[in-house]
Amino acid sequence: MIKIRQFASLGGFSFAKPQARRISTITFFMNTIIIGDIHGCNREFMALLQKVGLTSNDRLVLLGDLLNKGPDPIGVLKTFKSLECVCLLGNHDFDHLKWRAGSQPRSESVVTRKLMPPACYEGYLELVGRMPLYFENKDLIAVHGALLNGVALPDQPVEVITGDINLDGSWKDKIVLDRPLIAGHKRYGSKQCDAYILEGKFYGIDTGCVYGGCLTALSMPSGNITQVRAARVYSA
Asked: Does a structural domain hold residue 9?
């Protein structure tokens, strides 16, 4: 089951009333494959998908920040549209929605928009508007950014769950849930390509692909890690 919460408000900008949405058909998956922040790195995205070797028994979940900073936003969107998967809302995706609503955009968002034909960019905005804030099943919970302790998933602030604001770095070590939590957004590992793992509790799998690190996939419930090294540094 996928639960989707739409946005309420942020910084004076109004969005749709919070609501829940579920998959209309019931499908049983043996594995959930979660991929960290892609950031426009389509070469690595495609290589990782091939290396993982998705099967019909796998549910694919992307942790958000599809675009910004990387070289190939159009390619990432084409690859994404070719897949049956869930993509969560990341802070960089959210920035494009806020820009449309009248806020000042990140410089990376401006660059991404210039790299895309108008129709392609509008299609991306429609896609972002449908991105859920979190994914959950019996084995795990996945978000892009972070969670507040003791706050139910539907009540988590949009700014926190998307990583639009950052919590103190210790949040991940203190979080108490009934299932493991998988998050992106920040490199918590001691080395660039190291996932940050508290076995059975927390998996931080943003390993800085766009900064010359790795793009990481986590298979659950096994906990197996698959990685592809970035071809080069795309962003400082």
From this structure: no
pTM of structure:
0.88
CA distance 146 to 159: 9
pLDDT tens track for 13-69: 434 433 333 333 345 568 999 999 999 999 999 999 999 999 999 999 999 999 999
| Pairing outcome for strands 141-143 and 181-183 | parallel
Query: At 88, is the secondary structure helix, strand, or coil?
Result: coil
CB 78 within 8 A of CB 117: no
Domain tally, the chain: 1
Domain of 41: which CATH number? Answer: 3.60.21.10
Sign of CA dihedral 96, 105, 63, 141: negative
**CA atoms within 13 Å, Cβ hemisphere of 221:** 10
Q: Are 193 and 206 in contact (CB under 8 A)?
A: no
Tokens at 199, concatenated:
């076995």
- Does residue 59 fall inside a structural domain? yes
Q: Which of 144, 142, 217, 231 is nearest to 186 (CA)?
A: 144
In a domain, 93, yes or no: yes
SS3 content of the chain, % helix, strand, coil (to 5): 25, 20, 55
Q: Could you tell me if residue 80 is inside a domain?
A: yes
